[in-house]
Amino acid sequence: MDTLIIALLLLFTVAALVLWLKVRPGAGSIPVAGQVGADGVDATDVIAQIDFHMAYGLYDQAESLALQALDAEPDRQDLKFKLFEVFFVWGKVDAFRQAGADYKDELSDSPEWQGVGVMASQLCPDDPTFH
């Protein structure tokens, strides 16, 4: 179990590093939605934007982006899983639990739900929603 947690944290770190290399300070401005940056990254990729904000510790903005995107596209499971990740990294236990209550029926059959369970074992280990 510890190996899986370490692997997840390593994966998140590598993703943040790759994103930072693409949109690092001094490399030009961050592209606005609907534009393609000089590096060819599509600025409409909200997951990349959320990762960018998380990499810089801007968790409230990452949450806001995820929720806005879910308002526009409520069926996107990848955004729901990303929201769990934001809450986990941010340490927002109550928001993580609420997301579990809101999305468990829809997401629990997905292979990614196991990752949510791993995060829950660290953040709220006694919560039966994730077991």
Number of strands: 0
Tell me, rounded to a whole number, the average pLDDT: 82
| N-to-C series of helices and strands | HHHHHH
Radius of gyration: 15 Å
For the largest beta-sheet, the strand count, sense and barrel status come to: none
| Class by alpha and beta content | mainly alpha
Please report the number of helical segments: 6
- Helical residue percent band: 55-70%
Shape: globular
C-alpha termini separation: 14 Å
Residues in β-strands, percent: under 5%
Low-confidence stretches: 24-31
Concise account of the structure shown:
The chain has 131 residues and is mainly α. It is 65% helix and 0% strand. The protein is globular.
Structure description:
It is a single chain. The protein is mainly α and 131 residues long. It contains six helices and no strands. α1 crosses α2, α2 runs antiparallel to α3 and α4 packs parallel to α6. It is globular. About 6% of the residues have low confidence.
Provide the fold topology.
Blueprint: H1 2-22, H2 46-55, H3 59-72, H4 77-90, H5 93-107, H6 113-123
Helix pairs in contact: 1-2, 2-3, 2-4, 3-4, 4-5, 4-6
